[in-house]
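Input.
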Amino acid sequence: MLGLDRGGACRGLAFRVADRDADAVIDYLYAREMINRVYRPRWTRVALQTGSVTALIFVADREHVQYAGKPVSYTHLTL
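Output.
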């Protein structure tokens, strides 16, 4: 699993969740993404083609022991 670091960006999907399902979906996302606490969850504005919304995102914690730092050039890896 690779995550974005400071200055990164991605194109992806944003899922609309019904109010009645929000707590269950957030619990699921925390269970999946926060297993090792390598991310810091954040609520932030994200841009969509139709405007912007507030969304839950997970940002890499640069102080976490599993933070890998700068990407390694795959040309230097031997498998």
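The chain is about 15% helix and 25% strand.
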